[in-house]
Amino acid sequence: WFSRVVWLGIAANLGLALPTLLMPARMLAFSNLPITEPLLWTQFSALLLVLLSAFYVPAALDPRRYRLVAWLSVLARLAGFIFFVVFQPREYHMFGYFDLAFFLPEVALLSLAGRP
Q1: pLDDT tens digit string along 32-62?
Q2: Spatial separation of the C-alpha atoms in residues 49 and 36, rounded to whole Å
Q3: Other CB atoms within 10 Å distance of the CB of residue 30
Q4: CA 97, CA 94: separation in Å to the nearest integer?
Q5: How far apart are CA 100 and CA 61, in angstroms?
Q6: Of 16, 4, 6, 11, which Cα lies nearest the Cα of 73?
Q7: Given its phi and psi angles, is residue 98 left (phi above 0), alpha (psi -120 to 50 degrees) or beta?
Q8: Which terminal residue of the chain, N or C, has fewer Cβ atoms less than 10 Å from its own Cβ?
Q9: Distances 3 to 34, 36, 64, 103 between C-alpha atoms, Å
Q10: SS3 content of the chain, % helix, strand, coil (to 5)
C-alpha cells in the first residue's frame, strides 16, 4: 500500500507540475495565486517538482530495497508541509496541505512495513 500511495503522489505532483511548466500564468490564475515576475520562477518550481517526483520512483518500486529513499520521500512531504504552512502566506497553504495528505498515510504505511 505504501507504493500505491507514493505512485498516487507522483501522479498528483505531475498533474500540478506539468501544466504549470507549460502554462504558468494560466495555472497561477486558475489557482487564484499572485502572478510571479518573471514567470521563469514558477516554471522552475514546476520543473523541480517534476525532478523531485522522479526521485520518489525507487521508493515506489521497492520500498524495502530502497528504504532510505522511501524514508527521504516521506520526509520530503513533511518538509513541503512545513515550508508552505509555517513559512508562507495563507494563499500558499494549500500546497502544504497537499503534501500533508500524502505524508500522513505514507509515514503510517512505511512504519507498518518495517515491522516484522
Answers
A1: 999 999 999 999 999 999 999 999 999 999 9
A2: 17
A3: 11
A4: 5
A5: 22
A6: 6
A7: alpha
A8: C
A9: 35, 35, 10, 13
A10: 80, 0, 20
**Residue 98 is placed in which grid cell?**
497537499
25 vs 112: CA distance, rounded Å: 42
In this model, does residue 115 exceed pLDDT 80?
no
Asked if the model's pLDDT at residue 116 lies above 80, the reply is: no
Whether the predicted pLDDT of 20 surpasses 70: yes
Residue with cell 500505491: 4
Residues 6 or more apart whose CB falls under 8 angstroms from that of 77 comprise: 9, 99, 100, 102, 103, 106
Q: Which residue matches cell numbers 520562477?
A: 41
